[in-house]
Amino acid sequence: MTKKIFRSILTVGVAVLACSLLLVMGCFYSFYEGMQEHQLGDELRIAAAAVETNGSTYLEKIKSDRFRVTWIASDGTVLYDTQADAAQMENHLEREEVREALETGTGSSSRYSATLLQKTVYSASRLTDGTVLRLSASRATMGALLLGAFQPILLVVIVLLVLSSLLASRLAKRIVEPLNALDLEHPLENDAYEELSPLLRRIDRQRRQIDAQLAELRQKTDEFTQITTGMNEGLVLLDEKGAVLNINPAAQTLFGVTGACVGQDFLTVDREHSMSLALRTAMTDGHSEVRAERGGREYQFDLSRIESDGKVVGAVLLAFDMTAQAFAERSRREFTANVSHELKTPLQGIIGSAELLENGMVKPEDMPRFVGHIRAEAQRLVTLIGDIIRLSELDEGGELPTETVDLLPLAQEAAENLRAAAEAKGVTVTVSGENAPVTGVRRLLYEIAYNLCDNAIKYNVDGGSVDVRVGAEGGSACLTVCDTGIGIPPEHQSRIFERFYRVDKSHSKASGGTGLGLSIVKHAVAYHHGTIALKSEVGKGTEITVRFPQEK
Question: For a designed S-S bond to 72, which of 48, 132, 425, 434 qualifies (C-beta 3.0 to 4.6 A apart)?
Answer without folding.
Answer: 132
